[in-house]
Amino acid sequence: MNYRMIVLDLDGTLTNGRKVITPKTKEALFELKRQGGVIVLASGRPTYGITPLAQELKLYETGGYILSYNGGRILNLSTGEIVFKKELPISSNKKIIEIAKEQGVNFLTYENDCIITPDASDEYVKKEAFINKLEVKEVKDMEAYVTFPVVKFLLLGDGEILSQVEPKVKEALGDDYSVYRSEPFFLEVLPKGIDKAASLERLLHELSMGREEMIACGDGYNDLSMIQYAGLGVAMENAVPSVKKAADYVTFSNNDDGIAHVVEKFMLSGHA
Q1: pLDDT tens, 81-129?
Q2: All structural domains of the chain
């Protein structure tokens, strides 16, 4: 099969445990670009948080795509054009904030290149800020403040708490939203129909490509849809069990150049 596009989750997939792209993986991706391959960085992160890795892979110069907010936005890096975007209706902001308060969990959303949250001291807010290199702005009255459209909310808490909160949030919000955990401690609330697979389908259509030409690699719950959708769905050795089970192929871990292995094995000419 001639795979032309590779879609890469970032944390736990493209980057190793130190959040770094290893030299071997980087070289394999540079070679893929030289051979005309398409690279898409697909993450729950906001666009700003993906930009440094896109720069490191020289995708602004050679072309490529960022799929941010788990599919809420797709950016063409060579033109700067937004290929697709979908935001939560402004009317839902208050409702989501009220649900988070009822469930007794902290939450955050984004304003430009900034995280906004009622509690900036929260360890999970700090984690999201660190991952994305974003400033944090503490806003006590979020209901009064968030009167503009946002792509998503993150509800925050340890895994045990969120496993109890998740079904209640789904029930309270109904069918008009996508609600799922991207990490044990992050519960995402996005517009309905927004996940990595749905947005990749739009991108493939835009590029006149079929899903059988696409490889998708990931390790977490929010990668499940694209791994099931892709022509070749790849789970990292370090992936959660449900992702491994759904994958067509399990590669090495993110600390053992798992992505380089996939690119060399399935995409580069001159490799088996």
Answers
A1: 999 999 999 999 999 999 999 999 999 999 988 999 999 999 999 999 9
A2: 5-85+194-266 (3.40.50.1000), 90-191 (3.30.1240.10)
DSSP state at residue 268: S
Question: CA dihedral in degrees (72, 210, 80, 29; nearest 10)?
Answer: 100
Residues 216-269 have pLDDT tens digits of 999 998 899 999 999 999 999 999 999 999 999 999 999 999 999 999 999 998
Phi, psi of 5 (to 5 degrees): -125, 140
At 262, give phi and psi (nearest 5°).
Answer: -65, -45
Q: What is the pTM of this model?
A: 0.88
